[in-house]
Amino acid sequence: MLLEVEGLTAGYGDAVILEDLSLTMAESEGLAVLGRNGVGKTTLIRAIMGHARQFGGRLKWRGNDFSNRPAAERVELGLGWVPQERDIFPSLTVEENLLVARRPGRFDLDGAYALFPRLKERRRNLGDRLSGGEQQMLAIARALMTNPVLLLFDEPFEGLAPVIVEQLEHTIRRLRSEFGFAFIIVEQHAQDALGLSDRAIVLDRGKIVRSSRASELLADFDKTKSLIAV
Questions:
Q1: Which of 79, 100, 169, 195 has its Cα between 20 and 30 A from that of 154?
Q2: Residues 23-42: what's their mean pLDDT?
Q3: Do 69 and 31 share a domain, yes or no?
């Protein structure tokens, strides 16, 4: 098993957001995390990455407990994070944003540019001179430069034009089919997330209230909408 989350209780400060949550991820698997706003989806991503307070439970990577490891060491394990805010360095060029995250492995500048030709065209542009779609491409490419095994996407399609969303979905599919990446995707556009994923969980009040094949939630999407509607 690639990732095991066992009885995770997590939050911020003294506030508990997730309570006794458990899930598993296999190698090269895609998992969609759905739910209303404020139910703990982003907290789950942040807890796995080490950016939320863990009150209890265990996190295991290929059988080894990494609950107490700092965030930087989790990147070394093979966790790659694409945050909702993108966190592009505005005063660095596209290429500098990529190089600052570089770690040894199969993905380098050439690999990033092959996946996102637009970034090669814009490689000398500063981070704050990119469109929203270009910034999202850069955020994904920068995560790939850390050479992860599991990618954690937090609202990757938020605020983007449909044509850009379609391009990013194609890229995520390529990352799985050609490179064998696993991913967890938190996304308000539930149909998009489900269409990319093997399995899905629905969160409510920090707990999993539904877990099934993604295709099952797509097949009965009216019922799925009732679980995740704001």
A1: 100
A2: 95
A3: yes
159 shares a domain with 198? yes
Residues 134 and 157 in one domain: no
- CA proximity to 169, closest of 139, 149, 197, 202: 197
Q: What would the pLDDT profile of 80-134 be if each residue is shown by its tens digit?
A: 999 999 999 999 999 999 999 999 888 899 999 999 999 999 999 999 999 999 9
11 and 99 in one domain?
no
Tens of pLDDT, residue by residue over 173-196, are: 999 999 999 999 999 889 999 999
Provide the domain limits for residue 137: 90-145
How many domains in the chain? 2
Report the alpha-carbon distance of residue 43 to residue 23 in Å, rounded: 14
Are residues 212 and 157 part of one domain?
yes
Kindly provide the b/e burial profile for residues 188-214, where b requires at least 16 CB atoms within 10 angstroms of the residue's own CB.
Answer: bbbebbbebbbbbbbbeebebebeeeb
Report the distance separating Cα 174 and Cα 171, nearest Å.
5
pLDDT of residue 230: 53
Q: Is 21 left (phi over 0), alpha (psi -120 to 50) or beta?
A: beta
Asked, for residue 85, whether it belongs to a domain, the answer is no
